[in-house]
């Protein structure tokens, strides 16, 4: 924050603590469905949802990275499948 309580352009988001992706539980599935839908939409493909085994794998994975790791994984995987 800048002097006087204003948010400076380079200070946006600083100081906000978000739990690691691995600690977000069911949020992982919500985010995964969002990123998957966005990828299919971007490529003009019919939307699909995650299979139960895929959901289980996403929840079991320890996610050393952040939400961007999840987004990148789903973007790449949906393109590889050629859906």
Spell out the key features of this protein:
mainly alpha, single chain, about 0% strand, globular, about 80 residues, Helicase, Ruva Protein, domain 3, 3 helices
What would you say this structure looks like, in words?
By secondary structure, the chain is an all-alpha fold. It has a single domain, classed as Helicase, Ruva Protein, domain 3, CATH 1.10.8. It is 47% helix and 0% strand. The model has no long low-confidence stretch (mean pLDDT 81).
Helices and strands, in order, run as: HHH
- Spans of at least 5 consecutive residues whose pLDDT stays below 50 are none
Structural class: mainly alpha
Strand content: under 5%
Sheet with the most strands? none
DSSP helical segment count: 3
Q: Tell me the Rg in angstroms.
A: 16 Å
- Under the CATH scheme, the architecture is Orthogonal Bundle
Q: What fold name goes in the CATH topology slot?
A: Helicase, Ruva Protein, domain 3
Number of strands: 0
CATH class equals: Mainly Alpha
């Amino acid at each position: 924050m800048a002097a006087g309580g204003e948010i400076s352009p380079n200070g946006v988001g600083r100081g906000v603590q978000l739990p690691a992706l691995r600690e977000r539980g069911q949020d992982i599935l919500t985010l995964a469905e969002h990123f998957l839908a966005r990828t299919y939409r971007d490529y003009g493909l019919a939307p699909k949802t995650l299979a139960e085994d895929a959901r289980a794998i996403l929840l079991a994975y320890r996610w050393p990275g952040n939400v961007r790791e999840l987004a990148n994984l789903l973007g790449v995987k949906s393109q590889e499948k050629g859906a």
